[in-house]
Amino acid sequence: MNEKLQKVLARAGHGSRRELEALIKAGRVSVNGVVAKLGERLEEESAVVRIDGHIVSAKAQEEVICRVLAYYKPEGELCTRHDPEGRRTVFDRLPKIRGSRWISVGRLDANTSGLLLFTTDGELANRLMHPSRQVEREYLVRVFGEVNEAKIRNLVNGVQLEDGLARFEDVVYTGGEGMNHTFYVVINEGRNREVRRLWESQDCTVSRLKRVRYGDIFLDKKLPRGGWMELDLKEVNYLRNLVELRPENETMMDETKANSSRKRERARSQKIRRAVKRHEERVSAPKGRSNNPRRSKKAAGEHGARNKTR
């Protein structure tokens, strides 16, 4: 092991390189009790690394199992770990994991819904997000305004934004009514609010935006808003190959499925036991008498009333 500290920690799932560089600059990371410096290299596997005083794992790459989740982000959720105002974040619904944490592959605006990937491998997240990789993102977008061939041509050829030239790789019209139009659009950089800013440059306002694809990973139609599903080994290795990372040989999918199956079996067993118990109570109750206290009292009252009338 002889790599930069932020790279090792990112690969172990403690954040993106950018996030970890900020932590190191702030003096919140230490190695063997000494505050780390930006650019420092980790040379010993046995080194004790702490973030904010808590010991964290810095496992070598071959020891870490890369996991990826596909999450259907609803509108209104924030792409941050903690919100000072207490608003819901995309991390609130994700499954808990030990010895690592989920890292989001890019972000979506609060008002944007759709596919958001999470991984335990910081290096994978960093490469997928990097503009040089040119990974396609496809969106379903509804715009309000006048749209004509000239505007579409501008968007495909390229528009000068405040942070440089931007363009849609593809634009497909799917229908509309009046001044409302729906399109599928493709970008391959994922700059901040890029889709919205491109349409705004043509005097059109985005009224709805939903990401439906990241690379060749599509938003599953069966996935509910706020729901997640773990990608299988083939899909994980597709993403790793996309950014020139070695393929993963292990997966947690079997264990996850086994846990889910065990939970379903326990619930089924409990349901059967409750049904058997109810049956035994009915059989063991004295003949002609209900084992329901409310029903017994009512029956006793009626019996007493009949005696009085006699």
Automatic annotation (TrEMBL):
Positions of the UniProt region annotated as Disordered: 250-310
Protein origin, superkingdom: Bacteria
Keyword Glycoprotein: no
Cross-referenced InterPro entries: PsdUridine_synth_cat_dom_sf, PsdUridine_synth_RsuA/RluA, PsdUridine_synth_RsuA/RluB/E/F, PsdUridine_synth_RsuA/RluB_CS, RsuA_PseudoU_synthase, S4_RNA-bd, S4_RNA-bd_sf
Pfam families: PseudoU_synth_2, S4
Molecular functions per Gene Ontology: 23S rRNA pseudouridine(2605) synthase activity; RNA binding
Compositional bias per record (Basic and acidic residues), positions renumbered to this chain: 299-310
Domain named RNA-binding S4: residues: 3-73
Biased composition (Basic residues): 260-277
Alphabetized UniProt keyword annotations: Isomerase, RNA-binding, rRNA processing
Catalytic activity, reaction form: uridine(2605) in 23S rRNA = pseudouridine(2605) in 23S rRNA
Cellular component annotations (GO), alphabetically ordered: cytosol
Enzyme Commission no: 5.4.99.-
SUPFAM superfamilies, sorted: Alpha-L RNA-binding motif, Pseudouridine synthase
SMART domains associated with the record: S4
One GO process term, biological-process aspect: enzyme-directed rRNA pseudouridine synthesis
Enzymatic class: isomerase
Function as written in the Swiss-Prot or TrEMBL entry: Responsible for synthesis of pseudouridine from uracil-2605 in 23S ribosomal RNA.
Family, per entry: Belongs to the pseudouridine synthase RsuA family.
NCBIfam families documented for this protein: PRK10700.1, pseudouridine synthase
Official protein name in the record: Pseudouridine synthase
Gene name, Swiss-Prot/TrEMBL: rluB
